[in-house]
Amino acid sequence: MHDLGLERVVQLHGPRDSAFVRGLLDRAHLFLLASGEAADGDAEGTPLALMEAQACGIPVVSTHHAGIPEVVLDGRSGLLVPEHDVLALADAVRTLVGDHESWPALGACRRDHVARTFDLTVCTEELLDVYARALRARDDGRERLRDVATG
Fold first, then answer.
1. Higher-confidence residue: 52 or 1?
2. Total domain count for the chain?
3. Which of 29, 44, 52, 62 is deepest in the core (most CB within 10 A)?
4. Whose CA is closest to 35, among 14, 13, 63?
5. What is the pTM for the complete model shown?
């Protein structure tokens, strides 16, 4: 980082607890997470950090990568750009910085989207519904097998 002259504008905190991270999010004006597929094909899933930033109402800029478009609703809860496109990333940041009057309305959309989609209670209810449907399908299959065997 020193070789690039970024020590005055970039600070790497290393591993920290959730209270520390929440403190950083409370002070943040914008959240940027640029993900991309690695040369060996490795890719991350759905970054929890994007959910946390949006839940705090922070404007986000990220990339069309893996599960990110499910977390960031492009143009509604944040801005997404193509992977590895540094110019598009910079333009998206400029767009948000230049239109900070819209941040409160976008912030409400971000918080609502995260709450509706990723809240633990909501996700648990959806998972329980999947299990219930699987059990019903299993029981229906057993009943059909019994009918065939006795039929």
1. 52
2. 1
3. 62
4. 63
5. 0.71
The string of DSSP codes covering 23-70 is HHHHH-S-EEE-----TTS------HHHHHHHHTT--EEEES-TTHHH
- How far is it between the farthest Cα atoms of the chain? 80
Q: What is the mean pLDDT of residues 24-46?
A: 91
Element (H, E) at 22: helix 18-27
The candidate with the shortest Cα–Cα distance to 30, out of 79, 63, 73, is: 79
**Separation CA 102–CA 111 (nearest Å):** 15
Q: How far apart are the first and last CA of the chain?
A: 75
Which pLDDT value is given to residue 27?
92
pLDDT at 34: 95
- Asked whether residue 135 is assigned to any structural domain, the reply reads no
